């Protein structure tokens, strides 16, 4: 089931670039709408304040002039003033000069508006009432007379005794406010469209920068899914996307390493079966041949029959030993398998090896030289496994040594336990050294013709199980030296926990 679109045929509304632009556009629109509402409200407030200040200023000025006419009783010049005022101001506002209703009021000579028969709305009545009480007041309301929003301002008029004798009412439509709001909204709309266009360009650039590493990650992920672990993003971005890209590269490297290890393990498995098949084919063929000859009665001589049985038994023992070695290698390579350790003296192991190896060395007249720092080198380990490990190396040393040569064993104990087994044999070439511990690896020398190729592999696994290591120094024609190293400090600490053993050690024990 293909769950990934390899051709990246993603619908436009599902693409990151579109979503980035959409988010930008939503933010711009919300910002423009919020700014527009705030601007409209501020425009209304500012327009009202401007009208209020202007009308109040004019009302106070007119009321002051009327006060002068009243105080000085200069009524003859008033009509000329009034006519001039009407010509100048009536284009912008209506001016009502209103008496306070007192028949004896000096304002009666100046009033031009009779409110007795006029049907005034509540806003004008409120302004008139408050101004006659001595307050400069104003109201904004919708006027049926003017068919638009109007501001009315009332300013009281005083006589020479500072008594209110009337009021000046100024009515002015708030012209231009609607047009101002429309112009403001138009500018905001133009600004929003321009911002959206700029936002589109910025969003495209930003989205391209954002999606470029993501696209590389997508291609890399698809390549990894298909088994191509050589793909790398190689991003230099110092942000979260850069970190993610570098994690992809690390993942690619680790997958490549895992794939290489898998191939190596697979090759080792195939080589293992091939080697096992090869090692078992020869003895099985021999046993089958001798069995067929016995069954067919080809061999009738009793001595030859007995010899054939002995050869068949020898091959069976060889196969048994091979299978046993295979099982042992498999067991030692299992991480869950742990050898049973106990305090042992390495000197006793080598004394045992030397006693059993004297006959082998005498056949080739090999002189065995042993050097040891102490008669007791203690460590925790499995006696039989360690003896088997050293015996494998010892047998190989004798096998590949020349006649009348020397074999050296050196045991030292300081911070670590170090055992050296050195021969004067044929040596190992530099090309072969990296492979000598691999299963079924055998040199082409005639001395190794009958070997299974499992001895050194077993020896290495035993050393690993004892937290040790094996180093090899060899040169063709000059011999080989195997060096075993074990962590003495850790083993000494564990040995001290064994009270009986620790008490039995002498002062010169290592």
Automatic annotation (TrEMBL):
EC numbers: 2.7.13.3
SMART domains membership: HAMP (SM00304), HATPase_c (SM00387), HisKA (SM00388)
Major location (coarse): membrane
Coiled-coil stretches: 248-275
Residues of the Histidine kinase domain: 275-490
CDD domains attached to this UniProt entry: HAMP, HATPase, HisKA
SUPFAM superfamilies in the cross-refs: ATPase domain of HSP90 chaperone/DNA topoisomerase II/histidine kinase, HAMP domain-like, Homodimeric domain of signal transducing histidine kinase
Subcellular location: Membrane
GO cellular component: plasma membrane
One GO term (biological process): cellular response to phosphate starvation
Enzyme class: transferase
Matches recorded under InterPro entries: BphY/WalK/GraS-like, HAMP_dom, HATPase_C_sf, HATPase_dom, His_kinase_dom, HisK_dim/P_dom, HisK_dim/P_sf, Sig_transdc_His_kin-like_C
Catalytic activity: ATP + protein L-histidine = ADP + protein N-phospho-L-histidine
PANTHER family: PHOSPHATE REGULON SENSOR PROTEIN PHOR (PTHR45453)
Protein name from the UniProt record: histidine kinase
Lineage: Bacteria, Bacillati, Bacillota, Clostridia, Lachnospirales
